[in-house]
Write a structure and sequence with these properties.
This protein has 225 residues and is of the alpha/beta class. Helices cover 36% and strands 15% of the residues. It starts with 10 loop residues before the first helix and ends with a helix.
């Protein structure tokens, strides 16, 4: 899809291991664990049905969601700074997996060609995809308002399992982002998602403020308990 998915020696093995990490988390949750965290690298949510892009080769969260869909309906919520275009592509014509992405507006941010509010699915999947494009400078309050709308859609859908594409590049000081969510805001996002009470697979996506990445994801996970 772009020039940000270079293939070198070991790329396939790494991508396959990352997808298997997400599958292992899905297997744990299907087996009774309430939450499992897949620390995936490379990430996955920009990889579509037949393309790689944005450092992503296999869509780890989608692999997990697709496997879980054999056991009942699944909701996949993407909170990465960038639109989960690959996830949207994979499930766009399906009604058994509800996909939602909260992200920076593609009118100024990668991936530019996906992620607009009028993209809602097609065929039997019409109405089973939702994008929440946000403007530059979006703060905790604005983000949490969009999140509440997303959670309402998930409750209405009534899934058996939830998959989260957890990108920490929504952090206020991320060098690649323009959304201004604080560490405390990231914790509140986790708390509100946890209020759904669903068995949940959390899959690591982006995050480039290296000095705070660990703190932010641990804060998020701590509130998911």
């Amino acid at each position: 899809m772009d020039l940000s998915a270079c293939i070198v020696e070991g790329t396939y093995q790494a991508a396959r291991a990352s997808a298997n990490c997400a599958l292992s988390a899905a297997d744990l949750v299907a087996g009774g664990e309430r939450i499992a965290f897949a620390l995936c690298r490379p990430p996955g949510h920009h990889a579509g049905k037949d393309y790689a892009g944005g450092y992503c080769f296999i869509n780890n969260a989608s692999v997990a969601a697709n496997w879980l869909s054999s056991k009942g309906k699944v909701a996949l919520l993407d909170i990465d700074y960038h639109c989960g275009n690959g996830t949207q592509d994979i499930f766009y014509e399906r009604d058994d997996v509800l996909t939602i992405s909260i992200h920076a507006n593609p009118n100024f941010e990668y991936p530019h060609y996906w992620g607009y509010a009028n993209e809602t699915g097609s065929g039997v999947g019409l109405g089973f995809h939702k994008n929440f494009p946000l403007e530059k400078g979006t703060d905790n309050g604005r983000y949490l308002t969009a999140l509440e709308d997303a959670l309402s859609l998930i409750r209405r859908f009534g899934p058996k399992h939830l998959v989260i594409s957890a990108g920490m590049d929504i952090y206020a000081h991320d060098p690649l982002g323009t959304i201004k969510v604080t560490t405390e805001g990231i914790g509140e996002i986790g708390k509100r998602i946890a209020s759904l009470g669903l068995p949940t697979v959390i899959v690591m996506e982006g995050g480039y403020a290296n000095e705070m990445l660990g703190t932010n994801i641990v804060t998020f996970l701590g509130e998911m308990k």
